[in-house]
Specification:
The structure is a single chain. This protein is mainly α. 50% of the residues lie in helices and 8% in strands. The protein has a domain at 65-202: Glutathione S-transferase Yfyf (Class Pi), Chain A, domain 2 (Up-down Bundle), CATH 1.20.1050. The protein has a two-stranded antiparallel ribbon. A two-stranded antiparallel ribbon has the order 3-4. Helix 3 (65-80) packs antiparallel against helix 5 (104-124) and helix 6 packs across helix 7. The protein is globular and about 45 Å long.
């Protein structure tokens, strides 16, 4: 929404581990974020949010039918899969890690991400995954781009160039700046990441 210029008001609720479930349940039926409120409608799933927004705003999905079909498939794959990546490479913007080892599941996930990045750019001409304009599929892989940088995941030159392009977007720069300024820490999340790697740099406030 930020990158496409769709107006919204962000309400931030700091994450406090499992104790957040009750607080999050007050605005999200599944006690998770993100959650979109539009008048009396509550849309609590990220893929559903994209479809909901696409009904009202141009540019959420690509105009081209082939690109749109591919973008939806890639987004759904990200939405439901890549458990190896999610487990080992926890979402972090400001910390850099050297992994102790890369599991077979993580390697397979990284290889598939690299394949998707190359396929989308080659198939639709870039510079974004489904063509010349940023769309929902790029938004779905934006957290992956942060993970690739934070955990120094091995990618092909074309995939790395795509990551750098996404990191340079205004919305991503703003996301990073705000994340680095956050004073909150979740002990469980910090401890979990240290199971899989060693901190090499921490840019958080």
């Amino acid at each position: 929404m930020s990158q496409l210029g769709i107006a919204f008001e962000e309400k931030l609720v700091p994450f406090r581990g499992v104790t957040n479930a009750e607080a999050f349940s007050k605005f999200a039926p599944n006690s998770k974020v993100p959650c979109l409120h539009d008048d009396q409608r509550v849309i609590w799933d990220s893929l559903a949010m994209c479809e909901y927004l696409a009904e009202q705003h141009a540019g959420v999905w690509p105009k081209d039918k082939d690109a749109r079909a591919w973008a939806r498939c890639a987004s759904a794959e990200m939405h439901s899969g890549f458990n190896g990546l999610r487990t080992v490479c926890g979402m972090t913007v400001g910390v850099r890690f050297a992994l102790h080892e890369k599991s077979a599941e993580l390697v397979a996930d990284v290889n598939r991400i690299d394949e998707l990045f190359n396929e989308g750019i080659d198939k639709f001409g870039g510079p974004f995954l489904a063509g010349s304009e940023f769309s929902a599929v790029d938004a779905f892989f934006a957290p992956v781009v942060f993970r690739c940088r934070s955990f120094d995941l091995p990618l092909s030159p074309k995939a790395l160039a795509y990551c750098e392009r996404i990191l340079g977007l205004d919305a991503m720069v703003k996301w990073e700046q705000e994340a680095l300024a956050e004073p909150w820490r979740d002990a469980d999340h910090e401890e979990e990441m240290l199971q899989y790697g060693e901190v090499t740099a921490d840019y958080r406030s």
